[in-house]
Amino acid sequence: MSQEPAHAYIRHGQTPFFRLEKKIHDRAYAGVDAVMLGVPWDGGTTFEPGARLAPWAVRQASAHLQTYHPWHHVDVFRSVTAADGGNVAVPPFHPALARQAIEEEVSAIVEAGAVPFLVGGDHSIAYPAMRAVAKKHGPLAVVHVDAHLDTSGPEVWGDPYHHGTPLRHAITENLVARGALHQVGIRATWGHPEEGSVAASHDARLWDMDAVEDLGILEIGMRIRESIGDRPTYITFDVDGIDPAYAPGTGTPVPGGLTAREAIRLIRELSGIHLVGMDVVEVCPAKDVGDITSTLAAHLLYEGVSLMAEERTRTR
């Protein structure tokens, strides 16, 4: 199930992720290794909405990527059978039903033996996705790239499920194994003094931007990889973890983040992990400039699938 030729893609006029075959009817995920899934939900945003439109924008950007990865030396979409699963049909006005729909769709993917790759949507989608993945694989190692801790609660906004809360829920529900949460790129202000204690009490490792500057992204990636070992791993990547100079298309930009190059290299340095799920969230096309954020998001997604391809090639 490799990429379509460019001429065939142009002929039918559709825009699946990476020009992949579409699997949007009856959850036809059997025999597929990786499923790209759009999640057009931004009902959890606390500042500027618009991330619900990201799946379409990232699909368009992803159509330009080729299949061979020169760094991993692997033909990604010939090593991994991948498909576009369409979008989760989330009701835009009902958060609880949206979470349920996301969890059910991701559960269908993992029960079929495939790895879900989600494009949000705001970061609140990571919580039901991790619930579904952990139900299959048990407590996860989580690599969380973000400007924010995402361990907030209802104190500020009166809602326990907004986009600043998914890691709090993942920790309190034991979806994340103790000591196996790695938070990279953190630099935003906190809503209250105790916000940092949630992850710390779970022995999470904080790699804030001071650590990135002091150690370098290669060293941090190596340490994360060694710490994770062979534990099932979920990557949740908020594009506001990247400096807005490189990713302006997001609803909650914070200065002083990762460069685009550091973001890509971080994922590459995780080569060898056992990836069981990934999301790329908080792309806001209306705030983007020249589609550079959508294009970067497509590359991050590709790097994640490449980890799967590299793992499968190495273990054959």
Explained architecture:
The chain is of the alpha/beta class. The chain has one domain (6-315): Arginase, Chain A, CATH 3.40.800.10. It has helices at residues 6-12, 54-62, 76-79, 95-111, 126-137, 166-172, 197-200, 209-215, 217-228, 260-268, 292-315, and strands spanning 34-39, 68-69, 74-75, 82-87, 115-120, 140-145, 176-184, 205-207, 232-238, 274-281. The strands form two sheets. It has an eight-stranded parallel β-sheet with strand order 4-1-5-10-9-6-7-8, with helices on both faces. Strand 7 (176-184), helix 7 (197-200) and strand 8 (205-207) form a beta-alpha-beta unit. Helix 5 (126-137) runs parallel beside helix 6 (166-172), helix 9 packs parallel to helix 10 (260-268) and helix 10 (260-268) runs parallel beside helix 11 (292-315). The radius of gyration is 18 Å and the shape is globular. The chain starts with 5 loop residues before the first helix and ends with a helix. The mean pLDDT is 93.
Strand content: 15-25%
Structural class: alpha/beta
Distance between the termini: 19 Å
- Indicate the CATH class: Alpha Beta
Q: How many domain regions?
A: 1
* Main sheet: strand order: 4-1-5-10-9-6-7-8
H/E element order: HEHEEHEHEHEHEHEHHEHEH
Instruction: Assign the CATH topology.
Output: Arginase, Chain A
